[in-house]
Amino acid sequence: MSASNTTEPVLQKSDVDGDYGATATTAAVDSSPDVSDSESAAVAAGLHHLETRDVHWYSYLLTLDFWAIIALGQLLALCITGSNTFTSFLSGVNTIIPAFQTLFNYCLLTLVYFPFSIYKYGWRKWWSIAVRDGWKYLILSFLDVEGNYFTVLAYEYTNILSAQLLNFWSIVCVVVISFFLLKVRYRWVQIVGILICCGGMGVLLASDHIQGSNGGSGKNMLKGDLFGLLGATLYGISNVFEEFLVSKRPMYEVLGFMGIFGIIINGVQAGIFDRNSFAGATWNGDVAGWLVGYTFCLFIFYSLVPLILRMGSAAIFDVNLLTANFWGVIIGTRVFGYSIHWMYPIAFVLIICGMVVYFLVGTLLGDSKKPWLGDNQADGVAGIGTAKLKALNEARKKGLVVGGPEMGGV
Question: Matching InterPro entries, A to Z (predicted)?
């Protein structure tokens, strides 16, 4: 895809407040209570330059952002695989406490991101945010906790094949919700990319079925499938909601509130549903180590998710996690004595190829420009991975802004 060249606007650094003031610009300037007019002008100029550059259909594949999304996605898949492995260790010694073991992750999120939020905001401003937006983070935390809980619960009643098939539903939920509520408009090549990824997951499931590793008949297939469907739905909704929030607010704010509300919700749930499991659970040094490993994997996972949601989208995030099954088998060969079926590498390559096809859209911004933030992303935060930060840095790098440091945050 190519576009005609236009004269680029140049912004001068303000002598009064050190921000970027517009002296001449052909791009529109958004106004927002949280964004100065000068910053809006800089964002508009940067976006204008990025969106009118001559690009090819493969241009995004040559950017650092694309490879960062692939690397982040695989790291997240490994984190999920690690947490599943530690859960398997715990289940092997009859320590089945799904809600309680996740509680430590929310505690760690709170210990890390809540003090940092106080450092950035101060108590008064943080409290005003909690009063104004706390209900949003409460809903996000509830969706996250319950999505994880019912997804794990499904494995107790249904077989592995059915539970994994139901995970596809989260991708469907993400695409539908993003389309109708967030006004995301998918191009046909993106839909094709998602379908190729799903085809790769289908190859994984087929290989499991051929090897007879689908878990056989579950205790209560209907009950397990319903739990899995509910978990996948809640999981998909929470992913879209988190993408919406981290595009508008700093990551440390979102993760800090998720930790606080997660402790409350997960703590109550653990006290109700895991209480009887404690009596028959095993408690020793190995179990403590597995809980630490599980918490560490989840903490890294939660800390990195906002980045891929900003640089990509909830859809590409869910698609990346399809490779977790592949990494699970790789680890399983060393830990549990699994064997790799010849179809597994084919499935992995298909999923990666699907992600490559997804980004053949002829734009340097990919999915980082969010339609719900306005044309110039005025309602968004200039944080790591956002189109707004890319535009600000592009304006400075190309001389559209004279002087001043790169702008950004988390």
Answer: EmrE-like, SLC35_F1/F2/F6, SLC35F_Transporter
